What we know:
Blueprint: E1 3-9, E2 14-23, H1 28-41, E3 44-55, H2 57-72, E4 76-80, H3 84-93, E5 100-102
Parallel strand pairs: 2-3, 3-4, 4-5
Antiparallel strand pairs: 1-2
Helix pairs in contact: 1-2
Amino acid sequence: MNVSIEEKPGTGQSTMLVVSGEVDAYTAPQLREKLMPLCEQNREVYLDLSRVDYMDSTGLGVLIGAYKSLRSQKGRLVLVGVSPRLSRLLKITGLTEIIEIEDGA
């Protein structure tokens, strides 16, 4: 399956990416390509994952890279719309301890 990534400008120095589909070894580079420049240009990046069906370790690596990039600039990465399945994956890997997660999209 493919991934679809839509950018929605936010207010001020924030933006949101709406991700749909599967984020895996095949599609994660597409997410990285859209996400990393936003991390360098914005103080806050919101990632709507409500339409993500599946994410593997490659996708988690993209999230970690974005988190580190924003953190180095005193910015923040916020995940919204995280499904119970994805939430369980984030908890198992310990990412819920470092990456902010909001309810709703």
